[in-house]
Amino acid sequence: ISACFQAGGKYLISGESGGGKSTLLSLIAQPAGRAYTGHIQLGGVELGEVDANWYGTAVCPVFQEPWLFHVTLEENILLGRNIPKAEYIHVIRKLNLGYLLERYQGQEITPQILEKLSGGERQRVALARAIVGHPSLYLLDEFTSALDRENARQAEELLLGEKAGIIHVCHKADPALAGRY
Q1: Which of 24, 68, 94, 131 is the most buried (most CB within 10 A)?
Q2: CA 27 – CA 31 distance, rounded (Å)
Q3: DSSP β-bridge partners for residue 61
Q4: How far is residue 31's CA from residue 137's CA, in Å, rounded to a whole number?
Q5: Helix, strand or coil for residue 87?
Q6: Does residue 168 register a pLDDT over 90?
Q7: How many Å apart are CA 26 and CA 103, to the nearest integer?
Q8: What is the pTM of this model?
Q9: How far apart are the C-alpha atoms of 34 and 48, rounded to whole Å?
Q10: Is the separation of the CB atoms in 88 and 74 below 8 Å?
Q11: How far apart are CA 101 and CA 115, in angstroms?
């Protein structure tokens, strides 16, 4: 494959299972952790040579199966970053997660609590984590697969309003939003 994604561009890659969509995102999302042949460049620099600290703040992957840590909900989203509370709360509400914040305020997300969270709630927590970090590029792999239609549309609308670039991989795009990529 040969592709060029422009900074700030919104890209939608859809297609059948096994076509390599997730593999492409996985390669971009793991600059030092995966061997590949060919070239993957970010800003003209070979991906393996990109400064890891910069990369960690500039590129944010959100995958279908998000990982949540055994810390509070707030800590899961903020990841130790100094983000104003009002901004964090705004994103939580935009993603329809205010009830989780109220329900688990200050509680560690234990394995028992984690089992109670739906796949859609986990995906939205991971998305909130991404959004509050203001990355330059979102790598989205089936990030709405566990969401109902309304929450999926709200999440996509929120992301499409961001100034950051997006590479969104999915099996089937929402026809109402596909034209905005």
Answers
A1: 131
A2: 7
A3: 139
A4: 14
A5: helix
A6: yes
A7: 34
A8: 0.87
A9: 9
A10: yes
A11: 16
